[in-house]
Amino acid sequence: MTELPLSVGDSASFTKTISESDVYLFAGITGDFSRMHTDDEFMKTTPYKKRMVHGVLTFALGSTASTLIQVQAKAEIPSLSYGYDHLRFLRPVYFGDTVTAIYTIESVDIDNMKTFARVEIFNQHQELCVVATHILKFLA
Which of 79, 97, 101, 123 is in the most buried spot, having the most CB atoms within 10 Å? Predict the structure, then answer.
């Protein structure tokens, strides 16, 4: 049986300040030009008061942390994302916020060659903004 390169408790993180250009590039790629992300005057009329980053853009930083944990472990077994469960956007992220994605292995399923990790993304105030469970499938 193949031993997986990750263990319960292994963790990696990635930090990024999300700029206005990040949001507009993401909008251009996805076609999501919602007023929530692009119309400052409209947002002033909402409870949020300012434009917010796409939730999926913020969430995507967890994918970077997933890659980093494999690099950190010097994983030689190829792997791919098998999916995400329990994804929640708990609070908005705004232009200029610095967010940190923390990826922590919670369980290892050797028989099915999978790891399950908690993905948590915090803003610069240590407020939890996004949470999910990531399943990583190893190919051996």
Answer: 101
